Amino acid sequence: MLFIIGTIVIVADYIYDFIFLNTSPRDKVQLAIKQKQGHVDYLFLGNSRVENYIDCSVIEEMTGKTCENFGMSGSSYQDSYVLLSLLKENGLTYSHLFIQLDATVKNETMTKSFKASLVPFIDSNIQAKDVDLKLSWYEKNIPFYKYAKYDYLYGIRACMAQLYKNQSDDVNLGFIAQYGVGDHYANEIRLSTLKNKYIEYLKEEAILDQARIHFYTSPYCAKMKNTIVYDKFKEDYKDYINYASFYKNEDYFANCTHMNFKGAQIFTKQLIKDFNL
User: Among the listed ranges 59-73, 140-154, 226-240, which one has the minimum average pLDDT value?
Assistant: First the structure.
């Protein structure tokens, strides 16, 4: 029985490795790792308040320039920094880097979901300053353990989708729209710090790459309190724009922390104007 079980996990580990390493990208992390990159004029990094807000198709249509939205739901600034490193490793060059600032600036750790998305590729030469991208001893030496540990991301359904469905919407679109109208999740903004070392690393990378870096805060609904606290970012980030309380129309929001499709279209056009894209 031990021999049979051992054989099964070894074979399963090989099959999963082969599928995830040799199929088309299905998410933005895989896209950054697997696909050779070219030049992009405007690159957006951040969490869902980037992914759900910035419609690059609008930017490209209005400016004639290229645009990529690599915002990912739940992403931290360390995630964004590693993602930029992966993109650059695969040949990306860019002229402008946009970073969305909000209360998550207090988080300097890598999110569990982002680390999990790297698991099939982590033995590759993935490197980023001051970031531990190594597998644990168990993940590295016990066959299939790394996939079993992150079963919510690498279950059989995900494996089959990777094999047969190829690209998912977030790879094809970059911008993922939210729909509906609502004001739930309203609360008071609390900003405990203005600094995050990975934001500073992103600034250093942009300077090294001779690109301009821009900072802004995406809009919240009118019921969100204390949004003026974000003006403190102006002390440290040149040309920062606080859009947190910019819109009062509730029809623009799927909830208090995320705009819907209608709001995202309007906000993208406002950003084009204000940053002179």
Answer: 140-154
Q: Yes or no: say if 222 and 246 are a contact pair by the CB < 8 Å rule.
A: no
Element of type H or E holding 259: strand 258-259
What confidence tens digit (pLDDT) does each residue in 221-269 have? 999 999 999 999 999 998 999 999 999 999 999 999 999 999 999 999 9
The structure tokens 């031990």 sit at: 2
Closest residue by Cα to residue 117 from 88, 153, 87 = 153
3 state DSSP class of 222: coil
**Strand 258-259 relative to strand 253-255: parallel, antiparallel, unpaired?**
antiparallel
Q: What is the DSSP string of 155-186?
A: SHHHHHHHHHT---HHHHHS-----S---TT-
Kindly report the pTM of this predicted structure: 0.91
CB atoms within 10 A of CB 130: 10
d(CA 259, CA 50): 10
**Helices and strands (H, E) in the chain, number of each type:** 13, 7
- Burial of residue 99 (CB within 10 Å: 0-12, 13-18, 19+) is buried
Amino acid at 112: K
Residue 74: how many other CB atoms lie within 10 Å:
13
**Is 103 strand, coil or helix?**
helix
Cβ contacts of 200-208, under 8 Å, gap ≥ 24 = 201/81, 201/129, 201/130, 202/45, 202/77, 202/80, 202/81, 202/84, 202/97, 202/99, 205/81, 205/84, 205/85, 205/88, 205/97, 206/97
